[in-house]
Amino acid sequence: QVPLVESGGGLAQPGGSLRLSCVGSGFSLGDYAMSWARQVRGKGLEWVAGIYRSGAKTYYADSVKGRFTISRDNANNTLYLQLNSLKPEDTALYYCASWSAEYWGQGIQVAVSS
Hints:
By secondary structure, this protein is an all-beta fold. 0% of the residues lie in helices and 47% in strands. The protein has strands at residues 4-7, 10-12, 18-24, 34-39, 45-51, 58-60, 68-73, 78-83, 92-98, 108-112.
């Protein structure tokens, strides 16, 4: 059983938007601070955003600050990442994970191209 399953990726144009979702199963997502990370093909993993268990605080990498928004719905065991003002350099495989990396999703591809 995959503990986290991402959805919502795909192809977007520069300046466009996507919304990623991540549904947890087999554990209570609300018990964990959560994060999103991404990996460009051939490069290392880059942390993108994080959120407290309650959702009260959020953190972002400088590369996405002001463009991406992380949020969560603990009642529905779901984590979100809203991607706005997309750039070609945002093209990557996006992963959701618990903050301390106990749980990971399989990743979902986001491609930004005209």
